[in-house]
Structures are given as structure tokens and as C-alpha cells.
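This follows on from our talk about sequence and fold. Go ahead and set the record down below:
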Amino acid sequence: QGKFTLLRDTRTDGSFLVHHFLSFYLRAGCKVCFVALLQSFSHYSIVAQKLGISLTAAKERGQLVFLEGLKSCLDLLFGEEEQQPGQPSPLQFISERNSDLKALFDFVRMSLTPADSDSWNGPVLLVDDLSVLLSLGAAPVAGLDFVPFCREAV
């Protein structure tokens, strides 16, 4: 409770840790918001099944909120995303001149805000690769601001 962990991998692939933390926190009964920018839902779902976790079931229970960055980027760029009134796309910075991450932060905050009926052990935010945000056009300062805002939200 109240911990912040930032993983950085150099010269080796540390993505197995993302799978480990995802399965660990779902098993622990935590509410998980997963911002997946590097891989698809099906990729994470297949690995989770091998670890004995069903991501689809966790989503249906409301335990897992999954933002599939790859699909959202394509939908946003090609105008196929179905916008909810008053709810901008979490990745709207891609199609705007403004490269801040406010909409993404708002998505994370709303995803982790407990509802009255929630009985989850605690909120957990997983982001598989923050550097992808820079590749998508987010300003480096916005990326640096995003981390402490998310830490505060959790």
C-alpha cells in the first residue's frame, strides 16, 4: 500500500516483470488499471492464461481496466474511435497540437477511483512502456509530469 515501483531495463528485456506484477496483483484482489502501450490485449491475455489468470474475467468483474494503446492509437488516427460524450480519448494528444497527457491521467484517475460497490484490496497502475508515449508525440516534460501525478492518484 502506498508504494511506487519504476522498472527500467537496459541491455535486457524486463517485460516478464510486467506479466508477473499483473498476475500478482490480480490474484491479490487489487483493482488494476493497465495502460498497455507496447503489446495488445490478446498478447497479455495469452501470457496471463499460462500463469493461471483470465484477463477477460477480470475485466468483466471490473477488477481490470485495460487501455489497449495500439488499438486506441489506430482508431484515433483513422477516426474510427467511438467517442463518449464529454469523455476525450485517453490518447488524444496524438491528434492534437497539445502534447500534454491530461486526458490519459484523467482516464487513470477515473479508472482507479473506487465505486461504492468496490471491494478491491487497493488500486494498482501498470504501464508497460512509458517511452512509447514519447514516440507517439508526448512532450518529455509531460511524460515526467505524468509519473508523479499517477503516483499521487494511486
Q: What stands out?
A: The chain is about 45% helix and 10% strand. The chain has one domain: 14-78+86-153.
